TrEMBL record:
Primary gene name: 25491262
Entry-linked SMART domains: LRR_CC (SM00367)
Family annotation (InterPro entries): Leu-rich_rpt_Cys-con_subtyp (IPR006553), LRR_dom_sf (IPR032675)
Gene Ontology cellular-component annotations: cytoplasm
Top-rank lineage group of the source organism: Eukaryota
Protein name: F-box/RNI superfamily protein, putative
């Protein structure tokens, strides 16, 4: 009778991976893994995220790396010497694809060099709130990880346009660039970056002229976030909508000098691919305008 209910392990693995997507639990597989040794083995393979903290000794890390297939490594809570830690981690045969170095005082340059020589699979790097990321640090990052596809540099005050220019020229596979809160950055992209799909320029100094240049050189953008960009007007939005033919989402929350709702509605209606628009807080569309937008399948927030 039991044979009638048998499922191969790859089927169970798919079911459990869906469970992981649907829960906010720190360990969504905690209870399922108690059912049987088979389920424990399957869930161990799905536990790919590890946040390293100060109490994680080298012997403990060795056991964790041996037991689980870690691909997502978070070092943002580690307060020790990151250069030493990264050198130790590089000795393990890992295939890390995502690394988080957020909330650290500076980029651990020597550690990253050792790490990148042994671990060449990294495609995503997160560096929130590292205030000492200068041009030389960005050069080192892209030299170590030229295959980066996702880079997040939120709230990094010292980021320069020259540094971002070097990143985009060197990392030819970059699809997601997050510069939220880089408040000194007045972004310009002066060469074609056709592979870029998601660009977050919220709380930067980007203006209409910059958006014209960006939209001309990044025509493949699907998602553009401009929240709290107080130098952006309807003119800049027009540049983006006209030049980015595949645009699906744009966030204009708190763009305080965008005031003409008629212009914005006409722009949205001119771009059928646009399905998600967050408008400035003071915007109030008429019932007729909302009907037109909904008929096009565009959700307005």
């Amino acid at each position: 009778m039991a044979a009638k209910f048998y499922l191969p392990e790859d089927c169970w693995e798919h079911v459990f991976s869906l469970l992981g997507d649907k829960t906010d639990e720190d360990d969504p597989y905690k209870y399922v893994s108690l059912v049987s040794k088979q389920f424990l083995s399957i869930t161990n393979r799905l536990r790919c995220y590890l946040s390293v903290e100060n109490h994680h000794t080298p012997p403990l890390l060795r056991r964790l790396f041996h037991r689980f297939t870690i691909t997502d490594l978070d070092l943002s809570s580690y307060n020790g010497n990151l250069n030493v830690l990264l050198r130790k981690i590089s000795h393990f045969p890992l295939k890390i694809t995502s690394l988080d170095l957020s909330d650290q005082p500076m980029i651990p340059t020597k550690g990253l060099q050792c790490f990148s020589q042994k671990i060449t699979t990294l495609t995503s790097l997160t560096c929130f709130s590292i205030h000492a990321i200068h041009y030389t640090a960005l050069i080192l990052i892209v030299d170590c990880f030229p295959n980066l596809e996702h880079l997040a540099l939120n709230d990094c005050d010292d980021i320069s346009e020259e540094g971002i220019d070097h990143v985009l020229r060197r990392c030819c596979k970059m699809t997601h660039l997050d510069l939220f809160g880089c408040s000194n950055l007045k972004m310009m992209i002066l060469f074609e970056v056709p592979q870029l799909k998601v660009l977050n320029l919220s709380m930067t100094r980007v203006n209409d002229d910059a958006l014209f240049v960006i939209s001309k050189n990044c025509r493949g953008i699907l998602k553009l976030l401009l929240e709290n960009c107080h130098d952006v007007t309807e003119k800049g939005v027009r540049h983006v909508v006209e030049n980015c033919a595949q645009l699906q989402k744009i966030n204009l929350r708190n763009c305080s000098i965008i005031v003409n709702s008629d212009v914005l509605v006409s722009l949205i209606l001119s771009r059928p691919s646009l399905k998600n628009v967050t408008t400035p807080d003071h915007y109030r569309f008429s019932d007729k305008e909302m009907e037109l937008l909904l008929r096009q399948g565009c959700n307005v927030y």
